[in-house]
Amino acid sequence: MSPVRRAAALALLALAGCSDRGTAPADTLRLALINDPILNPVLAPDVGSVLVNKVIFPGLVRPDEQLRPEPDLATTWSISPDGKVYTFALRRGVRWHDGVPFTARDVQFTFERILDPKSGSMLWSDFAAIERVEAPDSFTVRFVLSAPFASFLTLLGYNAGIIPEHAFAGKPILDNTDFNRGKPIGTGPFRVVAAVPGSSLTLAANPDYYGPKPRLARIVFKLVPDANAQVAALRAGELDLVTLEPASLPGVLGTPGLTIRQATVPQHYYLALNQRLPLFKPPLVRRALDLAVNRRAIVEGILKGAADLPVGTIPIAMGEWFADSLPRAATDTAEAGRLLAQAGWRRSANGTIRNSKGEPFRFTIRVDKGNPSREQTALALQQDFKAIGLDVSIETVEFAALVRDDLQPGRYDAILIWWTTPPDPDQYSYYASGQINNNVAYANGTADSLLLAGRRETDPAHRRAIYHAFQALERQDPPVLVLYYPREIQAMTRRLSGLPRLGIRDALRHSETFSLGPR
Amino acid sequence: MSGAGFLARRLAQGLIVLWIVTSATFALMHLAPGGPSILADPKLSPVERRAIEERLGLDRPLPEQYLAWHRNLLRGDLGRSYMYETPAGRTVVERVPNTLLLAGLALALSLALAVPLGVRAGRRPGGPADRVLDLASLAALSLPTFWFGIVLIILFAALWHLLPAGGMTTPGLEDSLRDRLRHLVLPVAVLALPITAELLRYVRSGVAAAGRAPHVPAARAKGLTEGQITRRHVLRNALLPLVTVIGLQAPILVGGAAITETVFSWPGMGRLGVEAALGRDYPVVMAITVTVAAAVILVNLLLDLLYRWIDPRVGIE
């Protein structure tokens, strides 16, 4: 061996010399992000940023383990009898990460920014019902709403982390790049101590945190853009928790030292049927299509069981709001055929169905490009619809184009897509006639009045009855074909404990209770 | 033609090339379906959408956006990233050293391997060494970077725990040289593999061609050893085209780095480019285009100067 080669071989041996597991202290939790987050809850445009901001920036309330609002920066609150005035008593003695005391002025400042779309706010539509925010004294905040809005508390605990007025000194929040990119100031259990663009974000326990003392010393968010690389890093012991696509599940099952857990999340995946088209206007037709779908095959075969069968558009993660007493959507192709016949579609000799003019039942399903689960689901739907005589084709389109050019302008037949909602059943903006997120142009007068009543009703028992009635109505006149409620698959080291049984997004606001056992 | 005149003319040409490249990128980016990911949230209300479009200047007609971008470029302002809310120029420049480190080491390793191996293969075309290396380089060129990278991570990090799975450093160990070197091994190897194969094939054919030149038998007749012949009479002639090939590899290196950087979570410019292109972060895509195009133009200019220096016959018109 030449001296050069010997030196090279020795160098390699030295580098690979010891095992790589011992590189992080045992009390550091390592999580993955796919790109650099924006460390400002008012501006955060993506899920990754939301995750990090949950740890840094508490809001007035936070979701508990049943996703109900519990006190956070506010200790108590009262709601006026007309449901339009919310008054919060704030926690005293809270300090920002830089030591400045937290006051009602910070809450007022945060909501003034949220309500100004020009500020770069991504939370405007959540809080459009706010007419004004008042701070009568340093520890009282009052919100005056333009109309009763029952999901207001839930939304306060969803993405609305409070930001410090003093850090922005009268300048637009978008312009404070230092704060937004690396030196944020929150009141949460962990504060940012290092931000390396493209690499990692390191948070250390906040000794002045107002809640229970954090049990972890540090949380490191590592940037790992590729999903396969995330799984490999988890198996290599370089990440402690990763959320998986169903397709990655087999590669992780049975790995020593890892546990896998599934959490229900407030999402519903559905096939949007464009009711601007005469084809999908009759409820009978939508019910027939709904009955044709073999959801069990999709959930078991494509999603590896990591999803729940649906009732309606209010998912099972919403707890008491979900109508568990109603039957889950089932497959009945014979009934589907009967309903189609009632709607004027009859089977022809070659097995396809046609209307009285002899036209075939033909439409295109669009699905976003690149996600194997969704592309396979579209194929399964095509087969299910073919079985009842429909002629269905599939087009894959880039997600941004799908949303901007098809879904929002309403130029499509059918789209396979999903909603991620706050953990509140208020779906007025999604399924009431003419509302901004009602992209399917669903119009049902009874649904409109139920959804409006539910949005205004602050008594939980009455509200539950309203939403259960809405879900029963959805079985008769489905606004969309709800396919399944996905579960978030969390693969994590066995050493990790203290995680509430929630999706990672909501669990992270409880990061002070997370702990890691010895290696 | 004088050296200064040559330089001035080449710089002017470079600016024109830069303008063509940025204009083409601008056009392609806006012709592609979809749009900025910040606007792809199905939940955005029309009010928010309008506010975002206004803030980012996306509500203006395209020719106006195009002119505004060039006007700002002349002032040294590359705009703000849509995804990161940072100055686009600074965001790209932050990543440049990381890509240079990765690509530079990969290129150095490739040269260190390709030259001796290419000489060995080219000295006896059709011989056993040539045949083995031909097959090996073909295999190396055919391996998809994405797949090969993941396989190496699974083997070296997940199964054997010998090397880190990705990243540039272990958070908290930023000052450790050993830690940095350990993080470099796998991505450099993956990036260097196809480049080595490519360069090897050039060296091999250069050496084989130079070996057939009439002065080689003459040198042999003079009584020089094979080693002396290779070093003095074959390699020198064979290496000249290699300089050109390295110039051509520069943009390929950045492209290959994009995939390697993504698989190995390397905080480089290539990965930033992939993210920006997928999210239609126009200012960042344009900033990267300017940076890469300017670098390629400069590298080629330097190589031309190097050529004139190596072989004075070159460049005299």
Task: Explain what the structure shows.
The complex is a heterodimer of chains A (519) and B (317). Chain A has 519 residues and is α+β, with helices and mostly antiparallel strands. In chain A, 29% of the residues lie in helices and 23% in strands. In chain A, the strands form six sheets. In chain A, strands 11, 12, 13, 14, 17, 18, 19 and 20 form an eight-stranded mixed sheet that branches. A four-stranded mixed sheet of chain A has the order 1-10-9-8, covered by helices on one side. In chain A, β4 and β5 form a beta hairpin. Chain B is mainly alpha-helical and 317 residues long. Chain B has eleven helices and no strands. Chain B is globular, with a radius of gyration of 24 Å. The model of chain B has no long low-confidence stretch (mean pLDDT 88).
Features:
heterodimer, A: 519 residues, alpha+beta, 8-stranded mixed β-sheet, 22 strands, 23% strand, globular, B: 317 residues, mainly alpha, 11 helices, 0% strand
